[in-house]
Write the structure tokens for this entry.
Amino acid sequence: MWFTMTEMDNDTKQKTSLTLRDKYSAEISKEDFNSELTVAGWVHEIRNLGGIAFILLRDRTGILQVTAIKKELGAETYKLLTDLTKESVVSIHGLVQPNEKVSSGFEILAIAVEVLGRAKAPLPLGVSDEDKAELDTKLDTRLDSRFLDLRKPNITAIFKLRSTILSAIRQHFEGEGFIEIQTPKIVATATEGGTELFPVQYFEKPAFLNQSPQLYKQIMMATGFDRVYEIGPAFRAEDHDTVRHLNEFTSIDMEMAFADELDAMGVLERLIRRCIKLINERNSKDLELLNVKLDVPELPLKRVTYDQVLELLKDNDLELPWGEDIPMEGMHIVAKTHPGFHFITHWPTESKPFYALPYEVNPKLCRAFDLNYGAKEITSGAQRVHNPELLRSNLIDKGLNPEAFEFYTNAFEFGMPPHAGWGLGLERLVMILTDLPNVRECVLFPRDRKRLVP
Ligand code: ATP
Ligand code: MG
């Protein structure tokens, strides 16, 4: 909102202000009837009947009806208004009048019009058409004109939910004594080695975009911070082009000291519960638009072991060699028995990264867990190895060069407490809670194999 006020006006205490908007459409009530005010937004629809025209004006709270009468508005202003292209931006000053034929119960009788931004025609993407069935088929077209796509309330709803989830996450971590940190995204060493890295040229040196804050958040456990979390970008040059993978995603990471994997799982399940509670409190209208109902899950969340999963797969004619990660086909079978949130625990040590801590009694198994929703993985975590000798030998076993990891293993040489943590993909969580079929829906400007613009 802006206004101009000259010195002279100031002296005479007369404000010659130009207010672009007094109220949002949803803020207008009976109390405003028969008084003048200014509204502003995008031209959603125009119906011109010659001497009278109806303009649907959309703002972030909804849509209201502006009625323009040629005789009262004057031919020139009437033409200015009715010639406007759809999606142009206007500010309209008018009289609020009760009108029972309009769903909101009122209309604004236009007195003055200011055009703030004209839209070209035709639009690359229809906005007034809110058909949810179009979500999938036109995703590429929608993403090309994301700013228009985001004018649709059922699309905005996704990002309102995302924002609530982030609020809940921050509330939750603060409530449980975590401090928020930021770690570097340009790094010299890959977290887990592998091919999923984007190389960057860092002056004379080769470097990478970080795939996870894993090593840095673990170093923080040697500082005395005890409980840290980070919300930041992670970059992965994924081989596969799927509906669950992005090449840039937002990673929610936590690490806690003097703790084991069960402590980390507890923080996670309470966080999921809080997210759902806060969404139900704040976003009932958005849930309606998305056609989603969210039940607050009972805690503790269900837990199954890797061996139990293998048994279940075997009962369903899928025999998996012990030690292998569970393929998508297997996850779909698991989802039939466990459709909601469930942890998978007690993973084979060989299937998890070098920093997952093996059980002392049976080192073939480690203290790692995944949290899934149906067939979709949302979190991986573990109690970590905190003994530097074991860490070095694990690195060698996984074919990694311990020298490249010295900046990390050093932190384990001078007093490192036992610790545990996890990483959760924000977009995966949003995708699950909005019940959307493609993770690209849950990020404003997705980066995938084919998409680098906009
Ligand atoms: P997946 O098996 O689903 O590819 P991952 O096991 O390789 O995931 P982790 O390294 O465990 O992924 O990362 C922790 C979390 O980060 C995952 O559980 C997931 O929620 C999220 N995540 C990982 N890779 C991606 C990606 N490419 N796009 C979106 N989210 C991701
Ligand atoms: Mg994982």
